């Protein structure tokens, strides 16, 4: 039954509510009510339905097209106007009277909200309705109430006067009032009353109580009521179930929540932002940060608008994942979408930037909060101060500390003072550190072990050994228990102290750590120490301490040995560290390069390792071993934040003193390289090189008596930092690439001295003669390159991926043993290129299955295992359509096999074969693309006998299983003798073109020229380009193409110069679910790729403080694409502005 109702404009409260009715007419305000009404201008109204909503929040019920006059005060007790039925316009006037009565109902609800919760008071208000009360009138009044104390009395009033068949309707509307008021107690009491009176609850009853519990932040009660439903014969609907995803997530029942979400996706439930926010928090707690992003994308695809809660949960997840660049992107989207940042937003950003050491960004957020007048908390102040400690912002820390003290709302706590003391200690500000400690003690806080450790470091760097001893005594006297890092700091001080003061420090260590003290005494008293006893004691000591400090102790002990002129003892310690796997992968050998990796070592340990490596090289030469064409030393490129010095800068002068032919590579920061010829010549000419090395090592430590500010101790971990489950404080220090020696106790170094290519040529003995490439120079000294370049090497049970991060200087293949290795390889860009990623993922799981041995279980178990693994692999690159497409096809094959297989082994075998077929098909597909593309270009450029083709990024055999897509077209033209020259862009900022495409072109002896991205338009204008061919990361149904950033500008230039622009990609790169490029989400890469040379791997080249926009891809519209080259043929537009790819795929499928 439908009614025409309108909300009176006089009720400001009712303007926030809604009733849903089928239609709405233009009505006038009633003139005869017995309670005063306020004058308001009419408000617009909405057309509403007759069913009162029990689930949705209330909306404004005033119609936009109604014309309601200003209401006047009335005092008549009549509730409607009598109309003479004989009057010509009687029907119209009666309808007007009828509607006037309904328009007054919300006002009655308003009066009931404000009246006393007494039967007489309620009856007095409702008397205006008279004796003829309709059921829908009762529903409307209760629906508009917001007083849970009065609502039950109103319910009873109506129940006594109405003859209702379904009394549960009125009870449900009354429960809704309790939900509005978040009064779960009243709701539960009303439910019990229903049962006592014999009224059977229905689904709406339970869903209303459940949502009441949810809004009251009582998820346990919501679960309790949800699980009661079956006992009353009620089956929860989709709305209730979708609410329960959030509820189960809040109570910690993750399995049920995720299971219900999977069902929600398959059955297309309507989910709200709160549910997605909870799911994101669930994924965050499990460390599935890509899952959080996937949820966000699914949310957008479903048309659910994210609110502040969703964005804040995402920001917090990206902070925990240490992905500040993604946090930046999400925040930009939040602002762009009109969602106002909250205090929680800024807090999440500060935490995200703080964890990742994005000091400037954290400070910027802090300043924005201050500008907006948002109050800081003690925790946020401490987070900022911790960030300042991590990045060396001494002055900024002092400002923040003063702001905190003057805020009036936040008082410094012990963590605050600990940060200030730590940063002053690391900066060598002894007086400031002492003043802060004094202020802390006066504020009533006690010094803890972290603070005392910082003071030990501070005094040690200043050479004030007596103050170190005094502080040590204070620690013991105050009852503070020294920890491993405290003793590490004492060892650090010993490596810097004069020899005549070592006894004082040794006595301190012996008091609190006898085992460590004994080892130190053995080092100092070398002449009277047996070698075997020394190894035994050191081994037992290192095995007894925590993993997070083993390397720091070992580095310190080696440094101490070196400072005491005990190089052989230092070698013993290094050998012990290697045996105990404290040091791993220090030396590596591949067919093309032998390397020494010093990234996590202190200077003393690094020079000791160099000494050992040189001896090994000399022995290899004596034994006639074949040397590789390159030898390298990797020191890392990190610098100490308080001194701007790193291991590379300190190490290079010592190589010069040894006259070693290792020179810093101009495009590989932290690497010192030499050739086989130069290395052998040097090793053969060494007569007493070991003695020289010993002198150099000893000199390093004897020259360190000045204690200037450039000599910095390693950073004391922040006292407030919490260890995560997957990382230790020691690992956090190691991330700085040599800033503190990765756990070493001393930071050394001078400015890095750049070596030019000429200097390298002089050492190698090569003369380039013009603009000769490094690969050409390498050929001149005898490097043999592979004849067939492959990024993926596979045979059943074995998978190797070419590490493309090391190209073109190193050709290193990594063994992939299982899906976890595959996931990491994709995530870390060991393998890249959409087709190659998909094949690598599929084969990594095939290798895992092959190597598991005898596999049993049911077919269903096997299918479930493989499906879960494939979902995991997809999370490594969720935006790669080829990867998700391959996973979908493999899952279909697996489940199809499981339906008929006799056991799990047969399903696993099916998967392996399907993955291997994908590998074979990809190569065949790429060759087909090359054939179609070459034929097309030759046909359209018939007048040219020598074609020049420009390509962008890398789309060759390194980005696929073999041959390539866009580069495959160029290869095919070359094989046909039709290619005059290939041009490849450098593809900034990550230089895939100069590093990878140029490498492939030179490898295949294809005539090629490298051009800067910005030179492409000029090249076209000069008439040097006949066609442009690029690859694709994703192609929309209309042909809009997402590809590496810079593709769009090339297409525009080609369009302007009348040059055909082709996209070459397999049909697996086409996403028919996306209608246009506007739906493609563009990933933003790290700002470091632009701020630093070599795509973020080199030195900073941009001004500090500049903002960065660094999208990984852009979308080229179909309107400026000439054709799309696929393995099935070329898709053309046939005079249209877009491509009809769906029709093309249907046509080829029918064939």
From TrEMBL:
PPR repeats lie at residues 167-201, 202-236, 237-271, 272-306, 307-341, 342-376, 377-411, 413-447, 448-482. Residues 596-680 form the Smr domain. It is an enzyme of class 5 (isomerase). Its main location: cytoplasm. GO terms for cellular component: chloroplast stroma; nucleus. The keyword Glycosyltransferase does not apply. Pfam families: IF-2B, PPR, PPR_2, PPR_3, PPR_long. Pathway: Amino-acid biosynthesis; L-methionine biosynthesis via salvage pathway; L-methionine from S-methyl-5-thio-alpha-D-ribose 1-phosphate: step 1/6. Belongs to the eIF-2B alpha/beta/delta subunits family. MtnA subfamily. HAMAP family: Salvage_MtnA. This is Methylthioribose-1-phosphate isomerase.
